[in-house]
Amino acid sequence: MAIESLITDHLDLWTAAARPKSRAGRGGNSKLELTGIKKLRELILELAVRGKLVPQDPSDEPAPVLLERITAEKAQLVKEGKIKKPKALPEISEEDKPFALPEGWAWAVMPQVVKNDKYAIKRGPFGSSLQKSFFVRQGYKVYEQQHAINNDFYCGEYYISDNKFEELKAFEVKPFDLIISCSGTVGKVAVAPLDMEPGIINQALLKISLNTLALTNEYFKVLFPAYFMKTETLSELQGTAQKNMVSVDVLKNEPFPYPPIDEQHRIVAKVDELMALCDQLEQRSESQLAAHQALVETLLATLTDSADVDELAQNWARLSTHFDTLFTTEASIDALKQTILQLAVMGKLVPQDPTDEPASALLARIAAEKARLVKEKKIKAQKLLPPIAEDEKPFSLPQGWEWVRLQQVVTILGDGLHGTPNYDSNGEYFFVNGNNLENGRILIKPDTKRVNKSEFEKYQKPLTDRTILVSINGTLGKVGFYSDEKIVLGKSACYFNLSELLSKPYIKRVIESSYFVDYAFSKATGSTIKNLGLKAMNEFSIALPPVEEMNRIVAKIDQLMAICDQLKASLQTSQQTQLALAESLVEEALS
Questions:
Q1: Locate the Type I restriction modification DNA specificity domain: which residues (predicted)?
Q2: Which among 148, 149, 393, 420 is most buried, taking Cβ atoms within 10 Å?
């Protein structure tokens, strides 16, 4: 199957096969990773290094002949005393050849195709060679990993003196040399430009000076990620931080598929052509996804903009007829979930019942309950907060609802331990933080630290069956209910004990809504790691419905969330099927 046909005959599959990226940032809506196009890119490179991307030309000088010619030229240079006799190369066994090569190709090793220079393959200097020798824009430049990763030779500020350069000249990098990142992010390749500043590489780089009459830099940039990084010796470095490139000697002995020099040029041209097509597919897919998401958000906004429950019902009916075309990504389903929660906290999800006890009467009963507990010295009197200003009320409330600060409906609000307890691997209590909270539960993870009973007694908080825990540091707004777990609470979570008269599930849904998340981010401090203070938690204003309506809202939310979860499960099954089909096409093309 021609590679162009493989792409064009299955465009829908390549662009449809996708999976959500990991959640990150505010709101947490997952974006899609276009796995079909990613696999297509990998397939193009794999076909390239196996000799299946372009047809062979019988008029090309065969690779074995070219290698013999290079070997003869080296022997002549040795005879003339211009270079030292190179080490004998080990014979490449059949076991070291993972697949059959086309006519005219050969298996080769790097010493056969580099310049006649003892420093042609060199890892940067380790240890203290470069320490305390930097100057700002003076002397010779030190090239670092960032130059390979970003393919940018003009950034960076580290330099060494002329004397230090002479001492480390074995590590000099020159125009058209290849540099490869060797630590952490391993395997990124860049070609040094003609106008680069003179300099050397540091320990995070590998330098290779190719004999470009034997192996072109452009083909090597295809070969290294598509073949070398997938060999048994280097494959474990893929996608893992804090890994280190194997030794130079190992790389020198790693056989690789070597095409004729003219075919190398044709392969690179075809790879560039097909990668440009992948770019177009990716841009089109991303544009379509962005337009789809904008349409979803616009239509969902008609729900939250509904004047009342009746108008909402009409807008919902119009939306529901297009569910199969609108909610086709995890991001769109997550947006639907957030809309449901927003409707709930605005009082638009279920109709009001005039026979319900109004929230004002409920608040009076809560205030009386708290006054009694203060009088009985079971809780402390709370400092009065200012009334809720009009600009703190982002929407109008239905009949029977009231604006209320969180402090008014809780008996206590605090956070966890500011510091680190003494851990005990045999302890029966767990030290939990905000990252242990998920969907109303406290999750004890394999890496959750333990403490003993004395530490628990030293740092325990007044947690009860009315306690709600909320993450207030890093990820904001994760919720867990306390259910007699043996825990010590850390500072990245706060706790509050809700009045007996209120619905815990309803308050949980309020905190999970974008209404709370927006408030939390507006009040949080810190640029990289967000932190929401207890004062802001106490002052959070809640639209409080009658308690009977709270229960109806929670029931409706649960019903609609179940539908969303069914949509998401169906979507995930479809994505897995599309991904399996894409993988099947890849296997077929490679077989």
A1: 151-289, 398-569
A2: 148
